């Protein structure tokens, strides 16, 4: 990897004689060594890009540690004047997003809805046909935001009403950040698929229990009231994204299956051979996360509204609510009414990738299980699913308690591979793009939710948002998490010997060809979009959770 750093000087630089490097430890991050090959310094003639200039090379070729402090790289003989360049790289990469476009549209209702479908957390939105009883809305209240001649009941019946419900956050203890108490809410947000096929919010209630101090905010309210209500929803979504959609459904789900595989399936078992390339890095990654990001002094402790006291409570609640169908893409999208919504590029891409992975798993299992009886008689396989259920989920969550057919095994294994590869790509590598503009994804709120309308101005909104210090911590963490692994392995690319053998190799070649076709289709589609959705392009999907 190459890290370009621009250093501005006020006068002629002359000939460099020394470059000094320092690897600095950052609070909340693991102390990782860095192997530096060399430093190349190139001056720009008259400050112009592309102009010819001489490049000086300072060889290093050594591992740097934080304990080394300053490491000097020299060239030639030092004379009286030494020019020292100290390079401190804090953020190595910025999200590929047009910041001016983003800051111009983040307040727009249509963009709020777009993020529900194609943002970093596309797992919360669901279609409804009945309004929740604790959401205080009526047809008369919402009539101005519905098509002329229609009603709330008609729009519900036609499947054009959607809901965001963050009930899992209700009553969760909030963190103290930089000595300041933060606040969490558990909002409900009603959205409508309008006649322009835009998904837009039409009602927001910031707490679960209706009452006079819990008003329903509407698009017709004062602009500052409506904007603040949307920011509160985005803040709640950020907490659920990080801990539920990301950590629980991808990292912890993969860890559960990885540990069960190591416990119950010998290395020669066909499922051990198939699954390990997709889960092998999870234990290391999760241990690092629990020792840094999720530990005392880490970013959750120092910057998130959901701090260390929140994490076990929220994970326990979310785990009790998780269902098997919610982890299986076709079932999940159908249950949430998103399987046929053309505006959801996440849904389109996720379904195609699931189908390809499922076909691959079915063919793999057919090499070893000729009939369903073979599945039932495989004691190691039955012990594996028992281990997963014992340490993972409640009996009413819909997870299979045993395997009776090859189809059941195929679906379950596909779910694991998807969760540890495509799902992680969609919810991890997208987050910096949407959180780079902090008001769009505030990770903490410094004032409680408003209890009346008309109490804030747009200038007051700034007092709700995180300070610069905690925002920088968040962005540093997201930047680190958004970097692909140095040894990046694309989806269904395998280095293990078993995949190079005869029938296995043919299956791998088939699935790789199918994924390549999906990549081409996504690239073609994205070339026509103002806001491309690249996160589930198979060439961008890691074979396992590696960050």
UniProtKB/TrEMBL annotation:
Pathway: Lipid metabolism. It comes from the Eukaryota. Fe cation binds at residues 246, 251, 424, 547. It holds the Pfam family Lipoxygenase. InterPro entries: LipOase, LipOase_C, LipOase_C_sf, LipOase_CS, LipOase_mml, PLAT/LH2_dom, PLAT/LH2_dom_sf. Residues 105-547 form the Lipoxygenase domain. Gene3D superfamilies: 3.10.450.60, Lipoxygenase-1, Domain 5 (1.20.245.10), PLAT/LH2 domain (2.60.60.20). SUPFAM superfamilies: Lipase/lipooxygenase domain (PLAT/LH2 domain), Lipoxigenase. The keyword Signal does not apply. Binds 1 Fe cation per subunit. Its cofactor is Fe cation. Keywords: Cytoplasm, Dioxygenase, Iron, Lipid metabolism, Metal-binding, Oxidoreductase. GO terms for biological process: lipid oxidation. Residues 1-78 form the PLAT domain. One of its GO terms (cellular component) is cytoplasm. Signal peptide: none annotated. The keyword NADP does not apply. It is found in: Cytoplasm. GO terms for molecular function: iron ion binding; oxidoreductase activity, acting on single donors with incorporation of molecular oxygen, incorporation of two atoms of oxygen. Belongs to the lipoxygenase family. This is Hydroperoxide isomerase ALOXE3-like. The lineage of its organism: Eukaryota, Metazoa, Chordata, Craniata, Vertebrata.
């Amino acid at each position: 990897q190459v890290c370009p750093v621009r250093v501005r000087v006020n006068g002629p630089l002359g000939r460099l004689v020394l470059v000094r490097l320092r690897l600095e430890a950052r609070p909340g991050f693991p102390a990782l060594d860095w192997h530096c090959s060399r430093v190349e310094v190139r001056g720009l003639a008259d400050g112009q890009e592309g102009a010819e200039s001489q490049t000086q090379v300072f060889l290093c070729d050594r591992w740097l540690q934080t304990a080394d402090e300053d490491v000097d790289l020299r060239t030639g003989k030092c004379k009286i004047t030494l020019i020292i360049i100290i390079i401190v790289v804090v953020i190595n990469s910025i999200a590929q997003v047009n910041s001016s476009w983003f800051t111009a549209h983040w307040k727009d209702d249509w963009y709020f809805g777009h993020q529900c479908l194609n943002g970093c957390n596309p797992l919360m939105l669901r279609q409804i046909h009945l309004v929740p009883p604790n959401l205080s809305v009526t047809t008369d209240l919402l009539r101005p935001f519905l098509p002329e001649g229609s009603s709330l009941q008609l729009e519900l019946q036609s499947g054009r009403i959607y809901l965001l419900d963050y009930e899992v956050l209700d009553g969760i203890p909030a963190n103290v950040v930089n000595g300041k108490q933060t606040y969490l809410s558990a909002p409900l947000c009603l959205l409508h698929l309008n006649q322009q096929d835009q998904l837009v919010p039409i009602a927001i209630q910031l707490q679960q229990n209706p009452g006079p101090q819990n008003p329903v905010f509407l698009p017709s309210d004062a602009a500052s009231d409506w904007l603040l209500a949307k920011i509160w929803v985005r803040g709640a979504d950020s907490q659920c994204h990080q801990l539920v959609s990301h950590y629980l459904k991808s990292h912890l789900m993969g860890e559960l299956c990885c540990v069960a595989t190591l416990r119950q399936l010998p290395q020669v078992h066909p499922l051990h051979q198939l699954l390990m390339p997709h889960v092998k890095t999870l234990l290391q990654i999760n241990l690092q996360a629990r020792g840094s990001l999720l530990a005392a002094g880490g970013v959750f402790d120092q910057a998130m509204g959901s701090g260390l006291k929140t994490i076990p409570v929220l994970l326990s609640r979310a785990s009790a609510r998780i269902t098997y169908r919610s982890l299986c893409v076709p079932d999940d999208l159908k249950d949430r009414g998103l399987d046929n919504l053309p505006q959801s590029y996440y849904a389109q891409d996720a379904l195609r990738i699931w189908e390809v992975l499922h076909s691959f798993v079915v063919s793999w299992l057919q090499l070893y299980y000729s009939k369903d009886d073979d599945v039932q008689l495989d004691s190691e396989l039955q012990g594996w699913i028992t281990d997963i259920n014992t340490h993972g989920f409640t009996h009413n969550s819909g997870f299979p308690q045993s395997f009776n057919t090859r189809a059941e095994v195929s679906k379950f294994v596909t779910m694991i591979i998807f969760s540890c590869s495509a799902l992680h790509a969609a919810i991890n590598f997208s987050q910096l793009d949407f959180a780079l503009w902090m008001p769009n994804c505030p990770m903490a709120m410094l004032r409680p939710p408003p209890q009346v309308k008309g109490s804030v101005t747009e200038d007051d909104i700034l007092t709700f948002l995180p300070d610069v210090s905690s925002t920088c911590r968040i962005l540093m963490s997201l930047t680190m998490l958004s970097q692909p692994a140095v040894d990046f392995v694309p989806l269904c690319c395998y280095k293990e010997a078993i995949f190079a053998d005869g029938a296995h190799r043919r299956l791998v070649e088939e699935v790789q060809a199918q994924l390549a076709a999906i990549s081409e289709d996504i690239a073609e589609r994205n070339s026509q979009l103002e806001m491309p959705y690249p996160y589930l392009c198979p060439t961008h999907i890691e074979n396992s959770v590696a960050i």
